[in-house]
Structure formats: structure tokens, C-alpha cells
Write a structure and sequence with these properties.
One of its GO terms (molecular function) is catalytic activity. The protein is mostly helical. The chain has four domains: 177 residues, no CATH class; 201 residues, Rossmann fold (3-Layer(aba) Sandwich); 68 residues, no CATH class; 108 residues, Arc Repressor Mutant, subunit A. It is 52% helix and 6% strand. The protein contains 34 helices and ten strands. Strands 4-5-6-3-7 form a five-stranded parallel beta sheet, sandwiched between helices. Helix 5 links the parallel strand 1 and strand 2.
């Protein structure tokens, strides 16, 4: 910030020297004014000394906002900071000199206050001069009226203002009129301030825009810019140029209201071609609206609403002024923290597109948009409806089966891996291989390219897998032998995956076990696991105590390397998934070969984790405690939400599941993690909004775990027990569609099918 003018700084120093010799006399000045104007005394006189209370930082709660110190903290002396009251001579307001922090909102957090004050030597915090001091040379004089925490100290504001005014009067009296005349005129300064204020407003508008844009697509799975950059880096120079020159693509690009559908076999390179199309359009149509979507199997946030919201976000970001339709949509929902529906998003999208001459929407892997019921159909219908009203251009890729019937009237061009593209890729990989291994592969380069291109049969992914397989070999002889291998099964893709699995199986026992369980978890997980969750799941496979298992958490990069390229870490979402949907298809078809124990082991691991001593204290009593539990136990959310699904699919009921269900407090803690959902940032006490008093039988019925139901009934667990909301095990089984469990419970005399809970 700008320093105060020299004349003001000099006056401050003179006044400080006088005060040191004579005292500041501010109390007398204030009393004199109040004596002449008694009507002001009630508002501006000094409050009683007992009203000056400073609470310890750790004792101040944000829940006290708007309350007085006594109302918020009570009379507990342990919460207060003791201070010496001083003598009569020291009762005049004290003058402090130093840094005043200026902001656009009051400081209400005592911990943040202390941190900033310590780090920056700050005297106090104020808002009146926010943004001004950077551009307008001035001196700020403030009367301190509160302790910058959540307590209400409004009774001190009048006295603080009076003290500041008294000091300001003294200060002005120290400045000769001639010195004032010599200073720069206010009008000259304000002309410069106008420009700077404009810059401040521009920055504020940019911040407001970003808040709205983030709201439109709030999760990482809906931000596709990182995906575009990733695929752009994977492409090799000049790959995909053949496609951009085709008649079909040129016709689609040059004419409005066109749809182009590009099917391709798994691994053909559709995604890389999509990224090439995006780059080409952004280069040649700089003024056009361009938005793109990379669908990904298993990402729960890729709903029709989420995907359309992402498109609206991308288009709105490029428009100036900011689209009114987007601002209006946000204003309709911000106060209620609600989300717009598909219809409202579509209307907003149409409004944005109408304001621009050309709009291109690019969608990759429509077949992977299957995370919710009819997700693909709803999303595609929304975009086609927008096209019918706005004349946008739509480009989409997919596997051949599934959505091609929606594109019968469209321009169609199959995406295949051309020999030119494969050659460019292989040349780059071989050159990199030679540098890394310090090997001369010139004698094998032509053979490697010929054999891999032949085997790939138009599938880019096969070439990648074959090349990865060769790069794991140590000698030219091994490379030559691998290239001469004539065995080819009819399903080339499964063969490549099978050979990769053979390599994994050939590893030492420890890395092999780690790789196999990684693949098993990625395949069987009910949602994509985060990298942290996977590490805990893998550590828990060992027969370890609660105190020991953290010593066995594997390095995630090492885990990925052991899986021979079959799984990858999504850098944006930080989740682990198969490298391609075709990889998942392969393991779905062969899981009974590779993962015989997974259906028993996974529920065992989840139940064992839920039985840890850390959770036997029961449910947490505050949001902070609950969130701290989730933070310090990264696998807890997944285990609580999905153990039952895994147990239901297991033919054998493991003892760990029974042990967990028989522990009342562990069940209550798990129920909280299962049912307490934070819908938005302002959800106070959300962690307490779940059905309490659920028994193990309730929870087993909720998930439909027949084996556990039978065991608990044999133990004498009450079949007609009700939780705090009046739900019985039977009502949970009925609600979640577990018919066989409902039949088991109905066969018992005490099970009442017509019981009503509170909601009834």
C-alpha cells in the first residue's frame, strides 16, 4: 500500500513526541465534548471496565457471531485472558502506531486473527479503507472497538469513534496551512483513483464469474481441460491429419447445423482423434463457441445435468460480457444452495449459443456415459434438442454398438488407426527406448514396426500394449523371439491383455500379489477408488493389527508400475481406473480365472476396517469430529457405503462381517458414515441427520445380506426392533428391493409388514 504523505508522517511524529511529554489528553477532550453535548453521552461515553473482555482464541466459536462475549462464552474465567487493569494515569486511550490490515469484510475468526497478526505484525483490522490505500496516499486513524473475533462489541464503537476523532483533530492542528497547499490536489489524485477503482471492479467481476463457472460444473470429473492437455501430449506430430482432410470432416466443419458420428472399435484411437479435432477447431475458429466432453465410465458426477453444466461453463467462460442467462440461473439457486435441472440448463445453453454465430460441441466416448440410468440417452437427447433450436455442430465418438441408431441421418466416418499414425507413434517410442536403455535397435526398428502394425489390425491400443510388452524385455534376442511368436487368438485384444497378465504373474510373489489385488479392487469396486483409498485397501489385505497396517501402505506409483499399464491414475480426480473400458471388459470376462478369492476377501477387508477400535466409540457428536474421523481414516467412507454390496455378492459369510454386525457401537458409527450426507457447504449439524439406534440386523437388511440375516436371527436379535425413525429391518429390506431377505423376515411371527415409521 502507499505510504501516507510526508506532511502527515511528520505531524504524527511531532504529535507522538508531545504526547510522550504531556500525555495525550484524549480522555479530557472526549469528556469536554460530552459535557457540552450531554445527548451524545449514552452513545459515545466509555463503557464500564467490566465490559472489556478478551476471550482466548481457542474458546471463541464462530457460532457466537452476533452475540456478546457474556452470551457466547459465559462467565467461565478459564476462557478469558487476564489483564492488569493499570492505574488512573493509564486510563486515557492508548495510541498505537503500525500496520492496519484492510479487507472487504470484517475479521471474525480469532485463530486467523492471531495467525495474521503474528506473521505480519498487524495492529488491527478494518474495512472502511479496503482497496483505497493501494492507490490513494492517506493515513488511516481507527478507534479499536472489538477484538476481531465473533463476539458483538457494538457498545464500544461510539467511544472508539470519539477517540479516533479526538486524535484526528489533534493531528490536523499540527499541520501548517502552507504545507497543505503544497500537497498534490485531491482532484489530481482521484483522477488516477478512477482508473484503479475500475481495475478493482474488473478483478471483482472476474472473481464473481469464476464462482458462477465453478458452480456450473463443481467437480473435477466435469473439468475436461486437463484431459484435453493430457491427450494432446500423448499424440505424436502429424498423427490424425488424414482424418481432418476427409470429405466428411470438411463438410461437417464448414457447414452449420451438422452432426458427425465417428464409431470405432475399442482402442482404435477415438479419444486421441477427438483431441486432434478440438485443437484444429480452436486454431481455425478462434471466435466460435467450442466445448468438449470426455465421457469416462465410472465417474458418478458425469450425469446428464453435470455434462450439460460443463458445456455451459465452457461456453460462458469465453463470452464477454458474461451471459445474462447464466447469471440469472445462478441467482435463482444461490440462496437455496440448489442445483439446476436439465431443462433449465438446456434453456441456458440455448441462450448462450444464440448469441454466437458458430458453436461446436465435441463429445468423446458416448458409450462410456453409462454411470446412471439412461444417462447416455438423456444427455444425447438434450444436446440434439439444443441443436434443433440453435444450429450448432455436434461431433461424437463411440464404440459401434449402442448409440449408432441416433445418428442415422448424420455424417458418419469410422475412426481407425492408420499405418501412418501407428508408424509415427512407434518411431517415437523406439527412439525413446534406445535413449533409456542405451541400446541400438536400428537392425530391429523396421521389424518391430511391421510386426506390431500387422498385429494391431487397426487398433491403436493393441500397438501400445505390444510396444509396452517389448520394452519390458532386456535383450535384442528376447525382442526378436517375441516378434517371431506366431500364436494369435481370434480376439487380439484379449490376447494382448492375457500376455500382459502373464508378465504380471511372472513377477516375484510380493509384487505379483500387490498387482493382482490392485486389479481385483479396481474391477470389483462399486465406484472408482481414490489413490489413497486403494493404498489402504491393499494394506488391509495383510493379516495385520489395527496398529500395524499403516506400515504396509504401498507407494501408489509403484503399484501402477507393477500392473504393466493396465491401470492408471487420473491426475484430475486422483482416482484409479483401468486404462480403457476394453480393459474392464476383458477382466469382466475372465474374473473367475484371475480373481477367485476377491468376492470373499473384499467384504472381509471392509468389515475388518469397520471394526477397528477407532470406531467402537460410536457415532461422532459434531460435524467437525465426524469430518476429522473421515479425514484420518480415508477408507472409512468407502467401507461404510459398500461393504454390504460386496457381502451380498459373496457366497460365503466371513466371520469379520458377523463380528462387525454384532458390535453395536461399530454399527452406529458405520450408519453415520452411510447416511449422514453433506449436501452443500452450509449444512450445519448434517452429521447428526441419520437414523439412530440401528442394529446389525437393520444394517444387514438395508444391504440385503442374507447370510448375515440368518446368522443374526439365530443369535436372537429382535426381528421387530425399530430404529429412532421407526424403521424395522423388514422396512429397510422392502425399501431397497431385497425380496429374498423380506421373505426370510416375513416368515417369522414377530415381523410386521404393516408397521409405520415416522414418515408414514
Amino acid at each position: 500500500m502507499n505510504l501516507p504523505p510526508v506532511v502527515l508522517r511528520g505531524a504524527v511524529m511531532d504529535l507522538a513526541a508531545r504526547y510522550e511529554e504531556e500525555g495525550n489528553g484524549l480522555e479530557d477532550a472526549i469528556d469536554g465534548v460530552l459535557g457540552r453535548m450531554p445527548g451524545m453521552r449514552k452513545r459515545y461515553e466509555r463503557p464500564e471496565r467490566g465490559r472489556d473482555r478478551l476471550c482466548r482464541s481457542g474458546s471463541v466459536s464462530l457460532d457466537g457471531d452476533g452475540l456478546s462475549c457474556v452470551e457466547a462464552c459465559g462467565e467461565d474465567p478459564s476462557k478469558l485472558v487476564w489483564r492488569h487493569e493499570g492505574s488512573e494515569e493509564g486510563e486515557s486511550p492508548e495510541i498505537h502506531y503500525g500496520m492496519i490490515a484492510s479487507a472487504d469484510r470484517p475479521m471474525k475468526d480469532a485463530r486467523v486473527r492471531d495467525k495474521l497478526a503474528t506473521e505480519n505484525d498487524i495492529l488491527c483490522f478494518e474495512t472502511s479503507a479496503a482497496g483505497l490505500m493501494n492507490y490513494f496516499p492517506c493515513l488511516v486513524v481507527r478507534g479499536i472497538s472489538d477484538y476481531s473475533d465473533s463476539h458483538d462489541c457494538s457498545e464500544w464503537q461510539g467511544y472508539a469513534a470519539m477517540a479516533a476523532a479526538a486524535y484526528g483533530k489533534d493531528l490536523l492542528c499540527r499541520i501548517p496551512a502552507s504545507r497543505v497547499e503544497a500537497e498534490k490536489k485531491l482532484g489530481d489524485t482521484l483522477s488516477g483513483v478512477d482508473v484503479n477503482v475500475g481495475r478493482i471492479l474488473d478483478r471483482q467481476h472476474d472473481q464473481d464469474r469464476e464462482i458462477i463457472l465453478k458452480w456450473l460444473a463443481p467437480t473435477e470429473g466435469l473439468d475436461f481441460s486437463s484431459k484435453q492437455n493430457e491427450y494432446k501430449n500423448l499424440r505424436k506430430h502429424r498423427t490424425g491429419e488424414w482424418f481432418l482432410k476427409t470429405t466428411e470432416f470438411q463438410t461437417w466443419m464448414r457447414n452449420e447445423n451438422q452432426t458427425m458420428f465417428c464409431p470405432g472399435i475399442p482402442g482404435a484411437g477415438k479419444t486421441l482423434m477427438t483431441s486432434r479435432v478440438v485443437d484444429h477447431l480452436e486454431k481455425h475458429y478462434k471466435d466460435a463457441n467450442i466445448a468438449y466432453v470426455y465421457c469416462s465410465f465410472g465417474l458418478q458426477d458425469q450425469t446428464p445435468e453435470g455434462l450439460v453444466g460443463s458445456i455451459v461453463r465452457q461456453l460462458a467462460r469465453k463470452q464477454f460480457p458474461f451471459p445474462k442467462a447464466v447469471q440469472d440461473l445462478y441467482d435463482q439457486h444461490k440462496d437455496t444452495n440448489s442445483r439446476p435441472g436439465l431443462k433449465a440448463l438446456l434453456e441456458t445453453l440455448n441462450s448462450i449459443i444464440h448469441s454466437n454465430s458458430r458453436t461446436f460441441i465435441i463429445i468423446d466416448a458416448l458409450d462410456e456415459c453409462q454411470n446412471h440410468k439412461r444417462c447416455c440417452d438423456s444427455f444425447l437427447s438434450a444436446i440434439l434438442a439444443a441443436q434443433a433450436k440453435t444450429r450448432l455442430n455436434l461431433f461424437a465418438t463411440s464404440r459401434p454398438q449402442g448409440v449408432e441408431t441416433r445418428f442415422r441421418e448424420s455424417i458418419v466416418r469410422e475412426i481407425v488407426s492408420t499405418e501412418h499414425d501407428l508408424t509415427a507413434y512407434l518411431d517415437n517410442k523406439i527412439s525413446s527406448w534406445e535413449k533409456t536403455h542405451e541400446a541400438d535397435l536400428s537392425s530391429l526398428r523396421a521389424t518391430i514396426k511391421t510386426e506390431i502394425i500387422k498385429a494391431a489390425d487397426g487398433m491403436f491400443l493393441l500397438a501400445v500394449l505390444d510396444m509396452n510388452a517389448l520394452q519390458s524385455l532386456e535383450t535384442k534376442g528376447e525382442v526378436r523371439d517375441a516378434l517371431r511368436n506366431p500364436s494369435r487368438r481370434e480376439n487380439r485384444l484379449h490376447e494382448a491383455y492375457g500376455q500382459t497378465m502373464e508378465r504380471i504373474q511372472s513377477q516375484e510373489e510380493s509384487p505379483k500379489r500387490l498387482a493382482m489385488w490392485t486389479l481385483a479392487w479396481v474391477l470389483h469396486a462399486r465406484r472408482p477408488l481414490s489413490a489413497v483409498e486403494l493404498r489402504y485397501a491393499l494394506a488391509l489385505n495383510a493379516e495385520l493389527t489395527e496398529a500395524e497396517y499403516e506400515n504396509y501402505l504401498p507407494n501408489i506409483r509403484r503399484v501402477l508400475s507393477l500392473c504393466a499399464g493396465l491401470v492408471r491414475l487420473d491426475e484430475m480426480s486422483k482416482t484409479i481406473d483401468f486404462v480403457h473400458k476394453s480393459t474392464r471388459d476383458y477382466f469382466e470376462a475372465t474374473k473367475n480365472i484371475w480373481f477367485l478369492d476377491a468376492k470373499l476377501e473384499i467384504p472381509r477387508v471392509c468389515a475388518a476396517y469397520l471394526s477397528f477400535g477407532a470406531f467402537r466409540s460410536g457415532c461422532c457428536q459434531t460435524d467437525d469430529d465426524f469430518e476429522e474421523r473421515l479425514r484420518t481414516h480415508p477408507f472409512y467412507t468407502y467401507a461404510a457405503n459398500y461393504w454390504g454390496h460386496h457381502a451380498r455378492e459373496s457366497a460365503i459369510m466371513c466371520p469379520e462381517v458377523i463380528k462387525f454386525l454384532e458390535c453395536e457401537t461399530a454399527v452406529q458409527a458405520s450408519t453415520q458414515a452411510l447416511l449422514a450426507i453433506k449436501h452443500h457447504s452450509r449444512s450445519p449439524q448434517y452429521s447428526q441427520k441419520f437414523s439412530r439406534e440401528m442394529t446389525g440386523l437393520h444394517l444387514a437388511a438395508y444391504f440385503g445380506v442374507e447370510g448375515a440375516i440368518k446368522h443374526l436371527l439365530q443369535k436372537g436379535i429382535a426381528v421387530d426392533a425399530k430404529d429412532a425413525e421407526g424403521h424395522t429391518p423388514l422396512s429397510y429390506a422392502q425399501r431397497n428391493g431385497h425380496v429374498s431377505v423380506a421373505h426370510i423376515l416375513l416368515a417369522l411371527e414377530k415381523a410386521e409388514p404393516n408397521d409405520e415409521d415416522r414418515s408414514s
